[in-house]
Amino acid sequence: MTPAARVQAAIELLDAIIEAAKGEGAPADRLIADYFRQRRYAGSKDRRAVRELVYSAIRACGEVPASGRAAMLALAGQDDALIDLFDGSPHGPAEARDGEDAAEAGVAPKWLVERLGAAGITGEELASLMGRAPLDIRVNSLKADRTNIELLEQGEPLAAPQGLRFESGVQVEQWAAYRDGLIEVQDHGSQLVCIAAGAIPGETVIDLCAGAGGKSLAMAARMENRGQLIACDVDKRRLGNLPPRAERAGAGVIETMLLNPKSELEMLRDSGVTGDLVLVDAPCSGTGTWRRKPEAKWRLTPQRLARFSETQDYLLDIAAQVTKPGGRIAFVTCSLLDEEGKDRIDAFLSRHDGWQALAIDLPVGRAYGNGWRLTPSHDGTDGFFVAMLGSAC
Ligand SMILES: C[S@@+](CC[C@H](N)C(=O)[O-])C[C@H]1O[C@@H](n2cnc3c(N)ncnc32)[C@H](O)[C@@H]1O
Fold first, then answer.
1. Residue 383 CA from chain centroid, whole number
2. CA 292 to CA 222: how far, in whole Å?
């Protein structure tokens, strides 16, 4: 592909990403993969270059752009070499017209910038949400240890005891250590919130929103495979990924339980299980993970955010009813919005007598509201809110 044809391909992809964002369609990564599956003539360098253009344009635009072309013109406004590729050549974009509208540069849509600002995320904290994330792994202490594991590349040790950091793009999934379950890909922030959750060997732990089990696996390792860890979710496909991962990791302590939406509490009660610790790694807007999925800023609306808050309250109320007397709830979201963090905990405490917020003290991050906050700019992690709640004995 010529450089101009790559720009045109990026424009077409951005059109698809913008449409998908408006209609809750496929994520950008999937759209890019599908696009190139139908264009086998594009080589790996072309794919990398187009991908880079697409993500740079998404990062450059705040509001949802009117079109892919407007988004690319916004990026070209910051790069003279790029504007020269709007040259009308075959397969390239038409020349830019005098006064043609470019999308507005910015970090995120205005309403979200305001909500994040109200939660103290401004300036560098805000800008870094559009940065690029490194690749973090967790050494699986059920099978190996960071101090002596032999890996194909040497990573930078992180504050989490088994965490190592690599540059993004390192293909750790192809390493034997990955295939053999010695390492898991996991953002440092996720590793830290599992440390805050504080699962203890021998306990009964309920992971209410286990998904594919990233945090279940980390907790199983902290539990030294002793006790019981019930990993639940309402999404059969996601939860179905966990048993093979658990097997690879040697995490025999994990059992899965598929819940039916709206019957979660009934099903948990019928099973007779109650937790010393219940992790609520709740579905959320993911504002803390924009470094990995920058187009998520265009998918969120005030209505969708309100629905996330409602679901978080709903799940916290379930958690309270399946926690043993004297037990704990760990509430986690990968969001920096108060509506999905501090406010949920304040609301929980006002609804539930006999519960209190417990202190958190991690080596990274800072106290925020009745919990703890991690951010890309301050901590070099994805953005997270975590709070610990303790019930009366
Ligand atoms: C943030 S993700 C979990 C990520 C996972 N804990 C990990 O570490 O990889 C939130 C999960 O909550 C699940 N979920 C949504 N509504 C739920 C409900 N009512 N009950 C249980 N899980 C739910 C979603 O299917 C999704 O897998």
1. 8
2. 27
Is the beta carbon of 265 within 6 A of some atom in ligand 1? Answer: no
One domain for residues 299 and 203: yes
Q: What are the pLDDT digits (tens) for 293-304?
A: 999 999 999 999
70 found inside a domain:
yes
**C-alpha 96 – ligand 1 centre gap (Å):** 45
pLDDT, position 346: 98
Does the Cβ of 211 fall within 6 Å of ligand 1? yes
- The pLDDT value recorded for residue 80 is 86
Give ipTM to 2 decimals. 0.99
Other Cβ atoms closer than 10 A to 117: 13
Q: What is the DSSP letter of 234?
A: S
Q: Locate 103 and state its tokens.
A: 């999308």
| 291 and 375 in a common domain | yes
**φ and ψ at residue 356, rounded to 5 degrees:** -140, 155
Please check whether residue 113 lies inside any domain of the structure.
no
Structural domain harbouring 154:
135-185
Q: What is the mean pLDDT of the chain?
A: 96
Residue 393 DSSP symbol: -
Q: Radius of gyration of the chain from Cα atoms?
A: 22
Which ligand 1 atom is the nearest neighbour of the CA of 332?
A: 1
Tell me whether residue 44 is in a domain: yes
Q: Read off the pLDDT of each residue in 17-31 and give the average, rounded to a whole number.
A: 92
Considering the domain boundaries, does residue 115 fall inside one? no
215 lines ligand 1 (CB under 6 A): yes
Residues 208, 283, single domain; the answer is: yes
293 within 8 A of 343, measured Cβ to Cβ: no
Between these two residues, 61 and 42, which has the higher pLDDT value?
61
pTM for the model stands at 0.95
pLDDT tens digits, one per residue of 243-264: 999 999 999 999 999 999 999 9
Tell me the sheet residues that pair with 135: 166
CA atoms of 255 and 203, how far apart (whole Å): 14
